[in-house]
Amino acid sequence: MKTLADAQLLRENCLTATGKTMGENLTAARVADREVIRAIDNPYHHEGGLAVLFGNLAPEGCVVKQSAVREEMMVHAGPARVFESEEEASQAIRGGAIQPGDVVVIRYEGPMGGPGMREMLSPTAAIAGMQLDAHVALLTDGRFSGGTRGAAIGHISPEAMQGGPLGVVREGDRIAIDIPAKRLNLIIEERELQDRMSQWQAPEPRIKDGYLARYARAVSSASQGAVVR
To answer: Between 121-129 and 86-94, two packed helices, what is the crossing angle to 10 degrees?
Structure first.
């Protein structure tokens, strides 16, 4: 915080819980090791670890940990391999059904569809464990842990269960990922996309009663924090 303040990137006049301002709290602060806390002109990375992508597949955005994506996957286009759940995708990956170049799509795992936006740990671990993280991307309206590596793009919003474009992706559709340009697109004509969207019907909810069913009915998009309204 002292480093950020010295670069005039903090509002030092903000009052804090100590009863003093931010600037007053930082007066005596110092950096003991510049390899641990880097100077502004010597960052670990010139961009943040996370990137938010937009496009016709994620009108409200999606999130990727770009610092963990292999260079060869920063820009990628490939055929969609579509799965309706985490378990279905994991079985296909472990069974050798996913090939280099594929874009694995896992949908109906968002806040409403999961319900609860489950963590897609199993399929990402399987992709990395089978040495496919340099060749295969994974897209989902679910979420990932901080330990995820590879081209794993999550929080796609609006989610499939809310009628988002992820719900109309078909097996073999080409998907283009451009992380430096912050873009994620389904490569089809706009009219075709709109036709598919107009014909989409929500699947039956996985849980139909109890608190999780109530949550699914009331939860907002991940792009709005997945809060219950």
So the answer is: 10
Q: CA-CA distance, 185 to 77, in Å (whole number)?
A: 9
**Residues 108-128 pLDDT 10s:** 999 999 999 988 888 988 998
Beta strand pairing status for 75-83 and 103-106?
parallel
Look up the pTM and report it: 0.84
Q: How far apart are CA 23 and CA 191, in angstroms?
A: 55
- Taking 80 as the threshold, does the pLDDT of residue 147 lie above it? no
Q: How far apart are CA 49 and CA 173, in angstroms?
A: 29
Backbone phi, then psi, for 84, in 5-degree steps?
-95, 0
CB 193 within 8 A of CB 175: no
Q: Which two tokens stand for residue 77?
A: 């286009």
Active site residue 145: yes
In whole angstroms, give the CA distance from residue 199 to residue 197: 5
Which residues, 6+ apart, have CB-to-CB distance to 41 below 8 Å?
none
Q: Which of 166, 64, 169 is nearest to 110 (CA)?
A: 166
Which candidate in 145, 157, 220, 221 is catalytic? 145
Percent of the chain with pLDDT over 70: 100
CA 123, CA 87: separation in Å to the nearest integer?
8
CA distances from 130 to 46, 47, 185 (A): 30, 29, 26
